[in-house]
Write a structure and sequence with these properties.
Elements (H helix, E strand, L loop, with lengths): L2 H14 L3 H6 L4 H11 L2 H16 L13 H31 L1
Helix pairs in contact: 1-3, 1-5, 3-5, 4-5
Length: 103
């Protein structure tokens, strides 16, 4: 599994939940952020990626598609099983960017 790509897609999903005014003002390269998260070895980030994978499977989504751009339908299915815990997982990845940059 390509954890950098998974993190990138998760960050894209989280940014899409923000209002357009906030999201447009962010200067975040989700590809680079995903690579940073995958490489830094932060235990909380690793756990968030595992939990995201578990939610993906629970939603009945094909495992190989988690590394590809997520469709609206996949995101809807993921949200339906993940609920608030899914937002916590995504936020842990966002928070991990700062922790990983510091290390």
């Amino acid at each position: 599994m390509n954890h950098a790509q998974i993190a990138k897609e998760a960050l894209n999903m989280r940014l899409a939940t923000l209002s357009s005014n906030v999201a447009n003002g962010l200067l975040l390269d989700t590809r680079k952020a995903g690579e940073l998260l995958a490489a830094c070895g932060d235990p909380s980030v690793d756990k968030a990626i595992r939990n995201l994978g578990d939610a993906w499977q629970e939603a009945g989504l094909p495992p190989e598609s988690i590394e590809k751009p997520w469709t609206e339908e996949q995101i809807k299915d993921l949200k339906s099983v993940g609920g608030n815990e899914l937002l916590d997982i995504l936020d842990e990845l966002v928070n991990g960017i700062t922790r990983c940059k510091i290390h």
